[in-house]
Amino acid sequence: MELWGRMLWALLSGPGRRGSTRGWAFSSWQPQPPLAGLSSAIELVSHWTGVFEKRGIPEARESSEYIVAHVLGAKTFQSLRPALWTQPLTSQQLQCIRELSSRRLQRMPVQYILGEWDFQGLSLRMVPPVFIPRPETEELVEWVLEEVAQRSHAVGSPGSPLILEVGCGSGAISLSLLSQLPQSRVIAVDKREAAISLTHENAQRLRLQDRIWIIHLDMTSERSWTHLPWGPMDLIVSNPPYVFHQDMEQLAPEIRSYEDPAALDGGEEGMDIITHILALAPRLLKDSGSIFLEVDPRHPELVSSWLQSRPDLYLNLVAVRRDFCGSQVECACWHLNVHSPGMESKRRYVLPEVT
Amino acid sequence: MNRHLCVWLFRHPSLNGYLQCHIQLHSHQFRQIHLDTRLQVFRQNRNCILHLLSKNWSRRYCHQDTKMLWKHKALQKYMENLSKEYQTLEQCLQHIPVNEENRRSLNRRHAELAPLAAIYQEIQETEQAIEELESMCKSRQSLALWPRLECSSVIIAHFNLELLDSSNPPTSASQVAGTTGLNKQDEKQLQELALEERQTIDQKINMLYNELFQSLVPKEKYDKNDVILEVTAGRTTGGDICQQFTREIFDMYQNYSCYKHWQFELLNYTPADYGGLHHAAARISGDGVYKHLKYEGGIHRVQRIPEVGLSSRMQRIHTGTMSVIVLPQPDEVDVKLDPKDLRIDTFRAKGAGGQHVNKTDSAVRLVHIPTGLVVECQQERSQIKNKEIAFRVLRARLYQQIIEKDKRQQQSARKLQVGTRAQSERIRTYNFTQDRVSDHRIAYEVRDIKEFLCGGKGLDQLIQRLLQSADEEAIAELLDEHLKSAK
Q1: How would you classify the pairing of strands B342-346 and B364-368?
Q2: B chain contacts of residue A122, beta-carbon cutoff 8 Å
Q3: Which of A319, B181, B213, B261 is the most exposed place for a label (fewest CB within 10 A)?
Q4: How many helices (H) and strands (E) does chain B have?
Q5: Which residues, other chains included, contact A23 with Cβ-Cβ below 8 Å and sequence gap of 6+?
Q6: Yes or no, beta carbons of A118 and B359 under 8 Å apart
Q7: pTM of the entire predicted model
Q8: What mean pLDDT, rounded, does chain B reach?
Q9: Do residues B431 and B303 touch, judged by C-beta distance below 8 A?
Q10: For residue A140, what is the nearest residue in chain B, using CA coordinates?
Q11: According to the per-residue pLDDT averaged within each range, which of B53-57, B123-127, B167-171 is highest?
């Protein structure tokens, strides 16, 4: 069947037909219907959506729209300059679309295919296997910004607030905070070299490299925290790996095959990294400082009871927020605000031990 | 025999603002001196005020109609009443004891009226000066009145056939006052000086009328706001003439924004096949955007023989429509949104999200439950940005509803309307076969559609005319109400 398809194909696309050179990549050996050399953007999207759907690729239409828009120089298909919707594409553009789409057929996430994605309006480079920032995490950043605005007496002085991000990945959280808090400074850490260099690259692209310190270290190892250049922090922010280990194999191929599992796997109850971060508090967090975390929907209760079992940390779970998708839909994640009360509480707590 | 001189201002309804002084002699020996004087052209050409308020009518002045005359009297009366009220208030506040609350509102009204009263005062003084100037010209005997005039450089030209024949050139005003006859050269000098004087006074009164006009026109609440402009293609029985036309109109407004140095931000663009446009929306921000674009809302009609698209096969004149909606954009404080009233939908599969899922569909749909308004946005890759845009559009739509409620309460008979009443009105026709754009509200026509659709000077001129008409109507309404309440 395949051979027959190829023969027919060769007959149809003989030399001189339509006069344009088409570099067909036969690497996938799939018989694909011939594309007219004068296809427009709309027709291409329609074509590739069909191809993706047939192969069971999720988000078929969105994927083809993003790919075509990207090749034509726009971020979304909706924002494409209207004149380009119906103009015929060049053969290089067609080739480019074909290459990118073939990667989509391999279940590569769109963000890695395009090599970039947006977060909080910032354009960031994306490189596998560094974790791709999720839209829910944009809400976490919003919350942090609200809190900082409320404590406005701290903001405004240079170097304030001082923020630590644990597991920076592509640098999404750090850089969006830096760009919206012009006085802030950020220390971003990650245990993966790839994440460190990607965050570096993004910081430079956005010209924020002067206010961010990117450090390659593993927060779970005992001695790591002594290597930080500054301290203590006003805020600790993180989207730590929080997937329950048993759920890892149910993740979509896009995630399983391309993203770093270490950025996802949180251990048996998904709490491993979370507890490590919370345990940092006494050493790294200022009084009246806060830790902002994104966690699995099952975690708020687990975190609450864990904190109760660790009074030595002097931390309170003061607020929880779910993603904004509304009550009809099951929530994707929760955001936690874990607060460290002032010195007064600490002193008060210490007294009973003295008899 | 009293040969008297009639001087009146004759203003052409042209945008150059040329003043023509017709100095006409009412007598069987008829001489007309026609002079063109360039007056200061003000920012907006307020021709109408001079129509309204110039004192000397002529049957030959065909641009006026009785409506103007009436308005003129009504305006006079209105200003008189305002002036009286102002003076009464002044008396009141000074001499009569009032309690605190009343005092505050009286003070407020006093402050409101103060500038109007001041302008009115000045207008009256200036008009008196004109009257005196004119009465000088009426009869020869009035020469004796000259020393009584306050103006330092007043020289009256006495246009009288008898005077034209006399000689003895005057060297000063008093000399003129003393003499009973003037020769041709004197005449000419006096003529020029008189006209100069008249020009100065005219300029002054013109300026005062403008000020008065500006102060009287009620300020529109939302004029300084930014807008969201939405275009939607109409329906026809076949072909895509509406969609093509919609795209051309949207492009026109985009170019106009450029022309006015505004910012044009695309919010939504839904194209149709063959290069047409179903629906689009943009946010336009800058100085006084709503003020300029508010009268663009309504149905725009097109008549043409289509060149491209499905309809072009048969060479027949097609008619199509498209609608433009202009929504003033509120500030955050203007429209309160209760989170409880909102449902935010993102197009993700029900179930897991966060780290468990990688989705690229960042579209957002906002539903405002109490009103049922739905806004969607998929303009950006960042979901939170789409959410911001959706909120902005929702706010604008809700704001529009608030404005509607306001406007509905004012029963207005104006030809130029904003709001839902205007939305279904056919306001303008673009006839390509006759190369003509006609605005039906002010009976305005312009040629060269191609130039008009470029969204530059052509469109700007039309908009200026619309604003002018709207102001005129606003004042007429004001006077109407005043008359009604006086009765």
Answers
A1: antiparallel
A2: 382
A3: B261
A4: 12, 14
A5: A91, A95
A6: no
A7: 0.59
A8: 72
A9: yes
A10: B384
A11: B123-127
- Backbone φ and ψ for B30, nearest 5 degrees, come out as -105, 120
Q: Give the DSSP H or E segment for A214.
A: strand A212-216
If we measure between CA atoms, which residue out of B264, B231, B228, B233 comes closest to residue B394?
B228
Contacts of B358 in chain A (CB under 8 A): 109, 111, 132, 134, 252, 254-255, 259
What distance in Å separates the CA atoms of residue A337 and residue A178, rounded to the nearest whole number? 19
Q: With an 8 Å Cβ cutoff, is B484 touching chain A?
A: no
ipTM for the predicted complex:
0.81
Interface with B, mutate which of A40, A45, A49, A59 (most B CBs under 10 A): A59
Q: Does B350 touch chain A (CB under 8 A)?
A: yes
Tokens for B78?
Answer: 């209105």
Residue A278 reports pLDDT greater than 50: yes
Contact yes or no for B353 and A241 at CB 8 A: no
Residue at B175: amino acid letter: Q
Per-residue confidence (pLDDT) for residue B439, from 0 to 100: 93
pLDDT at B368 over 70: yes
Cβ proximity of A193 and A216 under 8 Å:
yes
pLDDT (tens digit per residue) in A105-146: 999 999 999 999 999 999 999 999 999 999 999 999 999 999
CA distance A174 to A165: 7
DSSP for residue A259: S
Cα B380 to Cα A119, A125, A136, B268, distances in angstroms: 10, 16, 15, 11
Q: Are B436 and B462 in contact (CB under 8 A)?
A: no
Residues in chain A: 355
From chain A, pick out residues whose CB is under 8 angstroms from the CB of B271.
42, 82, 85-86
Q: State how far the Cα of A269 lies from the Cα of A266, in Å rounded to an integer.
A: 7
Between the CA of residue A172 and those of A149, A236, B253, B440, what are the distances in Å? 20, 15, 37, 55
Measured between beta carbons, the chain B residues lying within 8 angstroms of A113 are none
Rounded Cα distance between B301 and B443, Å, is 15
Cβ atoms of B439 and B295 closer than 8 Å = no
Q: Is B362 on the interface with A (CB under 8 A)?
A: yes
* Chain A residues touching residue B361 (CB < 8 angstroms): 59, 62
Interface test with B, best of A46, A173, A176, A324 (most B CBs within 10 A): A324
Q: What one-character-per-residue DSSP string does B229-289 give?
A: EEEEE---SSSSHHHHHHHHHHHHHHHHHHHTT-EEEEEEEEE-GGG-EEEEEEEEESTTH
B357 touches chain A (CB under 8 A): yes
Residue B69's H or E segment, with its range, is: helix B66-95
Are the Cβ atoms of A325 and B346 closer than 8 angstroms?
yes
Residue B287 Cα, gap to closest chain A Cα (Å): 25
**Contact (CB<8Å) A135/B362:** yes
Report which secondary-structure segment, H or E, holds B366: strand B364-368
- Chain A residue whose CA is closest to B266: A79
Interface test with A, best of B347, B358, B366, B380 (most A CBs within 10 A): B358
Specify whether the backbone of A63 is left (phi greater than 0), alpha (psi in -120 to 50) or beta. Answer: alpha
Contact between residue B252 and residue B455 where contact means Cβ atoms under 8 Å apart: yes
